[in-house]
Automatic annotation (TrEMBL):
Domain of life: Eukaryota
Topology term for the membrane: Single-pass membrane protein
UniProt keyword annotation of Lipid biosynthesis present: no
Family to which the UniProt record says this protein belongs: Belongs to the PIGX family.
Transmembrane stretches, start-end: 12-29, 287-310
Compartment list: Endoplasmic reticulum membrane
Keyword Transmembrane helix annotated: yes
Pathway membership, UniProt: Glycolipid biosynthesis; glycosylphosphatidylinositol-anchor biosynthesis
Protein name: Phosphatidylinositol-glycan biosynthesis class X protein
GO biological process, one term: GPI anchor biosynthetic process
């Protein structure tokens, strides 16, 4: 009888122990219900067609696919490109509210003189405390797409030096990079800059993240103009934020983008930055052409007369000697 009671007591203890382990597993271990909700949330980042898949979204450089086929970079082509490549990759509205970032300031100016200058941009991004906490779960970067006016080039050697000094997270130049190319065959130059966002860099009640960019530029001398100058106008850039998240390597990285500023739809915040590039004056060019022609004709006549005179002298000397 005592042995039977001992066996029942041991079985009871085993059952109690198993129930305690089960309850702890369900309620206290991460990865049961919360993990499922997290995966569902992450897989729902993408605002595009669920059938298209994330593979259609740019994985690194947005502008790289635009210049795979040579084409002019005009507003209509670029807007169509964004509709196909960028807009389907935008974050869902629920995610945008969770990771709310706003463009609170954009300042731009041209620094320097002569044919080598710098385009300076100050970008201020506002995020509240809740956004700062939510961003800790994501990999976040600011993407700036700067389309330069025709005839204005990014100095790639200076950009490389700035990148090596840590001025940019990553940078690439697309489009027209050949300074010697004739103007009629030139295209726009596009600079795409990626800057990592670290919400932990903000301390206390700070809620504005400021990014300062300096793009070194040089210019190709433009065609003739009556005023002697050609004005290059810099439009405001496209500014986006890219978010990505991976779940412990169990699934591929999920990503989406949010637009802080669209150059094609947003009203300019300030008057545009301009660069008055010196060019030749048509009237002066005509005068120079006439003077050059007359000088060349006069020189040719002098050479012909000198040749005739020299030949005559040589003939007279030969006749005297004979």
């Amino acid at each position: 009888m005592g042995t039977m009671q001992g066996i029942m007591a041991r079985d009871y203890c085993k059952y109690v122990t198993l129930w305690i382990i089960f309850i702890c597993t369900v309620f206290f271990m991460p990865g049961t219900s919360s993990s499922g909700e997290l995966e569902e949330h992450i897989l729902d980042l993408h605002a595009g067609d669920s059938n298209m898949g994330l593979a259609h979204c740019p994985t690194n450089w947005i502008m790289q696919s635009y210049f795979e086929d040579p084409k002019a970079l005009d507003d209509s082509h670029f807007q169509d490109f964004k509709k196909r490549k960028v807009y389907p990759c935008l974050c869902k509205e629920t995610v945008s509210r969770t990771l709310k970032l706003e463009l609170s300031g954009l300042g731009r100016r041209l620094i320097g003189e002569g044919s080598h200058r710098q385009l300076s941009s100050s970008i201020k991004i506002k995020l509240n405390k809740k956004s700062r906490v939510n961003l800790l779960s994501y990999s976040c970067k600011v993407i700036v797409i700067e389309i330069l006016p025709r005839g204005i080039f990014a100095d790639q050697f200076e950009l490389q030096h700035l990148f090596e000094r840590g001025a940019f997270g990553d940078i690439a130049v697309f489009g027209d990079t050949d300074l010697e190319l004739p103007t009629v065959r030139s295209n726009n130059t596009v600079v795409e800059i990626h800057m990592d966002v670290d919400p932990t860099s903000l301390s206390g009640d700070e809620d504005v993240l400021e990014i300062n960019l300096h793009i070194p530029l040089h210019v190709r001398y433009p065609p003739l103009d009556e005023s002697g100058y050609v004005t290059a106008v810099f439009g405001e850039p496209d500014i986006l934020v890219g978010f990505s998240f991976s779940i412990g390597g169990l699934r591929p990285d999920q990503s989406c983008m949010s637009i802080l500023r669209d150059r094609d739809s947003a009203e300019p915040r300030h008057s545009p930055v301009t660069w008055a590039v010196p060019s030749g004056i048509q009237m002066h060019a005509s005068i120079v052409s006439v003077v050059t022609f007359l000088s060349a004709a006069f020189s040719a006549v002098v050479i012909i007369l000198a040749t005739i005179f020299y030949s005559g002298n040589m003939s007279s000397k030969s006749s005297k000697q004979s």
